[in-house]
Design brief:
Chain lengths: 302, 264
């Protein structure tokens, strides 16, 4: 019997609901009975964990909607949550209609904004990343360009819009141009910083192995810089998505920024509120995608 | 004496600093024979790593000449493989790929893919890491990382192996097991080795000669001790061996009486 007691010991402290009566009589049924309470306790713990992650954000959202409801009741002209919701349902039931250039579904507007961001950002990456490598690798280049970057970076990209209009003679490429301008700075600066921070050890390895320059770039520099580059890309896209709304308000055409302005002219305030949520949601999605991408390429060092 | 592999002739090294010229090393003369294992020992700041970097070609001397296999050392190269203190594996490559990087560079032009792969696998098996070929460095322990670092160096079949405090970052037990492993590998391959250490037991256990360096600045070689212990060596058997104890005593005497560092 002494064996049996020894066997039972690790189980006893785990479960408090164990029946002491059966315990002394026979061992195997107790072990089996002991499992469900443990499972329940685990499930309960998981439920609490789940509630801890889910409840606070929901409370926050409810608070926002509550304040919004109060404000809309006190202020005429601001639509309440209920009105906005029914309007949103109507709007999203047909997001991709098109009645000429000035009256298109919200889906088209978001997509054309995203397209501008993608093009402007693509050009910025194509120029900014190689620039960043040059600035990070050669002190001469960084002392040459750092003053220019410091001077131009604080300028609102919208200040560049008239220059874009002048050069491209059209609204659409001018908006893309502002995106290019605002995206390029974080890309250059982060890439350069990444190149500067490549551990000397890795470069020593390359030197000892006598790797050719092409291999140094593909096997050592690029992977080492990639996490910094992705940070640059994330910051760029974030700013680009901020700027595109303002740029489109000024240039017109199809796009979420223009749509906001158009709805303001139509005095459809509930559409503006919907647009705010949509812009926020798209921005959040972009950010999350890039964070996931960055996670994929982050290596634990040491 | 066997054919000399490394010849260091009246080498000095100084750096320009804000306070003026700083002399790190002066008048270093040393010859390392083929197949010999030499350790450099001294207090921190005595320029032992500087000397190793000079042999590696990572830095060039301000005076004097270094020769490797009768050719002047003008820069780093795969014939002088380095095992770095902090392993320096590339974190985005598996253990296998890290070793392959060096193997490909040295043998890639002459040999086929399968042969290269076999070399990498053999090198990793030699340090008992064949179970983790396709693991990433962050997935294995510190000692295992250093094993891979050693495998990377050995796989290149260098003329000389340079090790900069290879076990400095490891705990005592892991360090001992890696020293034993290294001892085995060195006996098997007969590799010419120069190793920096500040561990007296490690120096006596592993080396044929111990080069004791004076304190910096302007450090130089103080004494050279030949360790006349037969190989293969065994840690436990040597613990009470008279020669081992004597060698150990001489090095300790040098470090803690003749070259005691004040308030270091």
């Amino acid at each position: 019997m002494s064996n049996v007691v020894a066997l039972k010991l690790p189980i006893a402290p785990l479960s408090e609901e164990e029946e002491t009566a059966t315990e002394s009589q026979c061992i195997s049924p107790v072990v089996i009975e002991a499992t469900p309470p443990i499972g329940q306790a685990r499930a309960g713990k998981r439920l609490i964990e789940f509630a801890k992650t889910v409840v606070p954000p929901i409370l926050g959202l409810l608070l926002l909607i509550g304040i919004w409801g109060l404000v809309s009741m006190k202020t005429s002209g601001i639509p309440g949550p209920a009105v906005t919701w029914t309007e949103a349902v109507r709007l999203f039931s047909d997001p991709f209609y098109s009645n000429g250039p000035n009256d298109q579904g919200i889906g088209w507007n978001v997509l054309s904004s995203l397209k501008r961001v993608a093009i402007g950002f693509g050009f910025a990456a194509a120029v900014g990343i190689p620039m960043g490598f040059l600035l990070g690798r050669f002190t001469f280049m960084s002392s040459m360009f750092d003053p220019i970057i410091s001077l131009l970076r604080p300028v609102s990209p919208l200040a560049w819009l008239p220059i874009g209009l002048l050069v491209f003679k059209k609204a659409d490429p001018a908006a893309t141009w502002t995106i290019f301008i605002c995206s390029i700075w974080p890309m250059i600066l982060n890439t350069a910083e990444g190149v500067r921070r490549v551990p000397q050890d890795y470069l020593n390895v390359a030197r000892v192995l006598g790797l050719p320059e092409a291999k140094v770039i593909t096997k050592i520099l690029f992977p080492a810089v990639l996490p910094y580059m992705l940070t640059g890309i994330r910051l760029s896209i974030g700013t680009a998505w901020l700027v595109i709304v303002a740029a489109e308000m000024l240039t017109g055409g199809v796009g979420i920024g223009f749509w906001v302005w158009d709805e303001w002219n139509n005095l459809k305030v509930e559409h503006i509120v919907i647009a705010i949520f949509v812009i926020g949601l798209v921005g959040l999605l972009l950010e999350q995608c890039l964070i996931q991408l960055a996670k994929r390429f982050t290596y634990e060092t040491r | 004496m066997m054919k000399p592999m490394v010849k260091i002739e009246s080498v000095g090294q100084s750096f320009q600093t804000k306070q003026g010229k700083f002399i790190a090393l002066r008048d270093i003369d040393l010859t390392v024979a083929k197949g010999e294992v030499v350790t450099l020992i001294g207090h921190s700041g005595c320029g032992k790593s500087t000397l190793l970097n000079l042999i590696a070609g990572l830095t060039l001397p301000t005076s004097g000449v270094l020769l490797c296999d009768n050719r002047e050392i003008a820069g780093p190269g795969p014939d002088r493989a380095v095992v770095f203190q902090n392993h320096s594996l590339l974190p985005w490559m598996t253990c296998f790929e890290n070793v392959m990087l060096g193997v490909e560079r040295v043998f890639g032009a002459a040999e086929k893919k399968e042969k290269l792969r076999a070399r990498v696998e053999a090198a990793l098996a030699m340090v008992h890491m064949d179970h983790a070929l396709h693991k990433y460095p962050h997935e294995v322990s510190g000692g295992m990382k250093q094993r891979v670092g050693i495998a990377r160096a050995f796989a290149m079949e260098p003329k000389i192996l340079l090790m900069d405090e290879p076990f400095g970052a490891l705990d005592a037990l892991t360090r001992a097991s890696l020293q034993d492993e290294l001892l085995g590998v060195m006996e098997k391959t007969g590799a010419t080795t120069v190793m920096v250490t500040h561990d007296v037991d490690e120096a006596v256990l592993l080396s044929d000669r111990i080069v004791m360096m004076t304190n910096g600045p302007a450090a130089t070689i103080g004494e050279i001790l030949s360790v006349a212990l037969p190989r293969p060596r065994d840690r436990l058997a040597l613990a009470h061996d008279a020669t081992f104890v004597e060698c150990r005593g001489i090095v300790l005497e040098f470090l803690y009486r003749k070259q005691l560092k004040k308030a270091a």
